[in-house]
Write a structure and sequence with these properties.
alpha+beta; 5 strands; 21% strand
Length: 106
């Protein structure tokens, strides 16, 4: 099962196994990762699963869809590496993925 490392704003790391086909957000919620709220249940409608994808993983996680880009326009602290983790689907190719949790989720 592929593993994701969630890094809290304070640097605390959480290593989580997430089954293929599940979103990174679902894995965070199923493992009680602080800072990932997922208020909309993964429908790309709230922006409460904002993460920063580590540089080594940006190409593998793809680019923001238009809907995701629009949602991130309302988020705090948006950067070039910002993603909504509900839009990143796990696969074996993402084993070892590292995401940093945004300090604020709106």
């Amino acid at each position: 099962m592929p593993r994701v490392t969630f890094v809290e704003p304070n640097g605390t790391e959480h290593h989580v196994d997430i089954a293929n086909g599940y979103s990174v957000m679902e894995g965070a919620l199923n493992n009680n990762i602080r800072g990932i709220d997922g208020d909309c249940g993964g429908n790309c409608a709230c922006g409460t699963c904002h993460v920063y994808v580590a540089a080594a993983w940006r190409e593998q996680t793809g680019t923001q869809s238009e809907m995701e880009h629009d949602m991130l326009e309302f988020a705090e602290g948006v950067r070039e590496d910002s993603r909504l983790c509900c839009q990143i689907e796990m696969s074996d190719a993402l084993d070892g993925l590292v995401v940093h949790i945004a300090e604020a989720q709106h």
